[in-house]
């Protein structure tokens, strides 16, 4: 009986030790698992942090590159626009100078043309006056028949302007003939008389 009790007690102690051993083993495994999970989590966090830092750094580098490219493009566009504006100003100034020269040439040509026209007009007037004077001289030198008698053109002009001039001329001619018949001394007086009658 004592041996049986001792055997039973030993068996119960062994079971308790086995249970305790399994419990310790389980706790150890749980602890190891927790530690492994913590290590893996830490490694993941470190890896993710490095990845995020790398991405942030890369993003900053890209932002810097974009900003530098944008600044360069702005500078290039500004230089191009300034050059274009300067070119437009130079072209505008050149066009203005050309227009001024063109206007000056046109004005000079117009003045020369007006001067030539003035000279030509003066020449034409001069030629017309000379031609008129020549025609008047030729006309005054011609002889015209009035009432069957040859008279000068100036006298004929006076006779045609005065309706009674022809009759007066005829009477004056008759008187002149009578006076001429009476004597040659009074010829000059009769001539003067005829001229006075013609003027009247």
List key phrases describing it.
single chain, 200 residues, mainly alpha, 4% strand, rod-shaped, disordered C terminus
Description:
With 200 residues, this protein is mainly alpha-helical. It has a domain at 146-200. It is 90% helix and 4% strand. The chain is built from four helices and two strands. It has helices at residues 2-141, 153-161, 165-182, 187-199; strands spanning 143-146, 149-152. It has a two-stranded antiparallel ribbon with strand order 1-2. Helix 3 packs antiparallel against helix 4 (187-199). The longest helix is centred in the middle third of the chain and has 140 residues, at 2-141. The radius of gyration is 72 Å and the shape is rod-shaped. The N and C termini lie far apart (207 Å). 2% of the residues are buried. Residues 151-163 and 185-200 have low confidence and may be disordered.
Lay out the secondary structure.
Elements: H1 2-141, E1 143-146, E2 149-152, H2 153-161, H3 165-182, H4 187-199
Antiparallel strand pairs: 1-2
How many E strands?
2
What does the radius of gyration come to? Answer: 72 Å
Spans with pLDDT under 50 lasting ≥5 residues?
A: 151-163, 185-200
Category by helix and strand content: mainly alpha
Outline of the structure:
With 200 residues, the protein is mainly alpha-helical. The protein has a domain at 146-200.
């Amino acid at each position: 009986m004592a041996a049986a009790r001792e055997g039973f007690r030993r068996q119960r102690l062994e079971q308790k030790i086995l249970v305790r051993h399994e419990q310790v083993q389980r706790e150890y495994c749980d602890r190891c698992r927790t530690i492994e999970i913590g290590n893996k989590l830490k490694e993941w966090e470190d890896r993710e942090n490095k990845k995020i830092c790398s991405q942030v750094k890369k993003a900053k580098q890209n932002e810097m590159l974009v900003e530098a490219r944008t600044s360069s493009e702005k500078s290039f566009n500004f230089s191009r626009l300034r050059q274009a504006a300067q070119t437009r100003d130079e072209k505008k100034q050149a066009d203005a100078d050309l227009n001024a020269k063109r206007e000056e040439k046109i004005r000079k040509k117009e003045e020369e043309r007006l001067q030539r026209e003035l000279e030509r007009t003066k020449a034409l007037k001069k030629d017309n006056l000379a031609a008129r004077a020549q025609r008047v001289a030729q006309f005054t030198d011609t002889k015209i028949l009035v009432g069957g008698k040859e008279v000068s053109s100036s006298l004929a002009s006076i006779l045609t302007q005065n309706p009674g001039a022809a009759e007066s001329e005829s009477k004056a001619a008759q008187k002149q003939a009578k006076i001429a018949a009476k004597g040659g001394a009074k010829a000059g007086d009769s001539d003067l008389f005829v001229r006075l009658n013609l003027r009247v």
